[in-house]
Amino acid sequence: MSVIIGHAGADERNKASGGLEGDQTGGEVCVRDWYSSPWDALLRPKDEALAEASASACEKACANERIGYDQLGRNSLYYEAKKLNFDLAAIENACECDCSSLMHVCALAGGAKLGFEGNCFWTGNMVDGFLRSGDYECLKDEKFLRSDAYLKRGDILVKTSGHTAMVLGKGALADEPEDTGSYAAHEAVSMKTPLPLLTRGAWGRAVWAMQLLLTARGYNTLGVDSEFGDNTLAALVAFQKAMGLEADGECGEKSWAALIAKG
User: Do 80 and 91 contact (CB within 8 A), yes or no?
Assistant: First the structure.
């Protein structure tokens, strides 16, 4: 399964504004599987306590049907939350947010020093605003943006031209060192048996290693579960095409070599 994220998407009519206050469908502000927006920046809290508290606040917001989506009323969540010391589960008055004001309020609930000057940050200025707080770093390596493998709970994904979401889980490679690309390769190379030819329907440790390597290179297998199914097949074929290999969906000698190679 992919990593879970929390976000504010659209009102009950799938519109940006004009709907009723509060979440009318349970899907205006909600949790869902990670997806590629595509993202172009990741804001990571420097402090684990901030990350956890912000993620917890986002989960509370997603579970509170009194918090809905409306771009024109995007700051009403902030004002309601401020009344209650940013306890988003305690909000009882119907209010609204959009994707970026939700991230702003959740970060404040977590203890970030963001401030508020009459308007929450929006996607075009939130990276700079969050960085000015000193509480976040900005990561732009593709491995954080094209895959969920390296994401950590409390991370904020940003598409500066229009969307943002908070990571509520942890990717398969999130705890690995910064040279994470080598981790899966070492796992694969260190197996006692020669690297086998893998085809759809295969399962086991070799498939697990292949999935890790694909994910590390930005080809999301939608799970590192040791089973070579349709999602893994699609990721492998996409990788083979990108590398100029025969896109046969079989992980043989050439595909293994390309996956394990550095760079």
Answer: yes
